[in-house]
Amino acid sequence: MSQVARIFRRFIPQLLHIIVLPVFFFAFMLMYRPFSSVDFLGQEWYGVHLTIASCIIFLSIVVMRLLYYYLPLKINYTLYAFWCLAEIIFTSFFVALYFWLVLHRPVPYFETLALALQYLCLSLVFPYTILALSIRIYQYHNKSADEDASDNQRMRFYDERHNLKIVLTSSSIFYITAEENYVNIFYVENDKVRKYVLRSSMKALDELCQDHGLVRCHRSYYVNPSHVRVLRKDKDGIIFAELDAREEMHIPVSKKYYDRLVEMLM
Fold this sequence. Notes:
This protein is α+β, with helices and mostly antiparallel strands. The chain folds into two domains: 6-151, no CATH class; 154-265, CATH 2.40.50.1020. Helices cover 54% and strands 21% of the residues. The protein has helices spanning 11-32, 37-41, 46-70, 77-103, 109-152, 202-211, 255-265; strands spanning 154-158, 164-169, 173-179, 182-189, 192-198, 215-218, 221-223, 228-233, 239-243, 250-253. It has a five-stranded antiparallel sheet. It has a three-stranded antiparallel sheet with strand order 8-9-10. It has a two-stranded antiparallel sheet with strand order 1-2. Helix 1 (11-32) packs across helix 5 (109-152) and helix 3 runs antiparallel to helix 4. The longest helix has 44 residues, at 109-152. It starts with 10 loop residues before the first helix and ends with a helix. The model has no long low-confidence stretch (mean pLDDT 88).
């Protein structure tokens, strides 16, 4: 059985349980009044008893959720369901104690406990289920979004026969340069600059490079603007882009593409 997702242990989910559970209990019992709760609590003081019981639930859930938040527990989804049940049972003891002491009914405490347990189980199973499903959906949505974002950052390079040769993240690429019927892809891997030779043309890579933020800076070069450290002009008036690689890299920038590169660097 897989472990409970980390999001279940974050502060916001605990805060939601602390707030939602007592509020839902109060609203549910006030609207539906199950198990002849009006006869047991009394019509005149019904709302007052519900308010106090809701406060007891609030304090009990605070204790249980703080324990769950701070204790280094390794819980799977089955055990998490038992933890939620334990919260209901723990809370029922204090709610029943209040009913037993205040109402002065001639019934044993454990009969009152059984009735309180009925009230809490019936009313709290809904918010527990809704919260658990909402957290799971939120986690799944964020995970899918992260995977999509990560997938969108990957550049897939195919050779002239449309065979997939290498997949790189756009952020790892320094620049791409053409050499006859090949292109050289310079990228970083494990803090080392690597070179991959691909049988293709610059024209075939135009759309791929533009879609992933690489900029044409020369007839034979595409550069990643995020790696450009500075643009400089030598004594002959030729502009070069210095890259932030460990190895010295100077990429020529032609006047035709200079303005576009500067715009991307701003």
